[in-house]
Fold this protein.
Amino acid sequence: MKGTKMLKYFGAVSVTFFAFAASAPAQAPALALLDGLQKGQWTLKPRGSTGAGQQLCLGDPAILLQIRHAQESCSYYVIEDRPQSVRVSYKCGGSDHGVTTIRRESSQLVQIQSQGIKNNAPFSFSVEGRRTGSC
């Protein structure tokens, strides 16, 4: 009887812990490549493009991991973490997900490739990210 009460207690504690952990907001993994990027105004442009590109005030470099899911809370799985490149898989909500590879050329220049699913539609893109000033 005493053992049964202990088992029920630990079972209840485990369920409570995992329910809380699952509802906690996800945080991007700590990656040295991202920490080495300079904060400030960045421009993201498709490779070879002469257009203006997308302007981005880079405070938390982790936003580069999920550009197409920028406003969503996502969970991450680090596939590769090297000093000059990182590859991360992420999942947001029910069906949205992606895989992003970032290659650092300098603290002010990166190459980003990302593909995945957003709103049940596939996406794939490659952009160059360049620091262009302060924000």
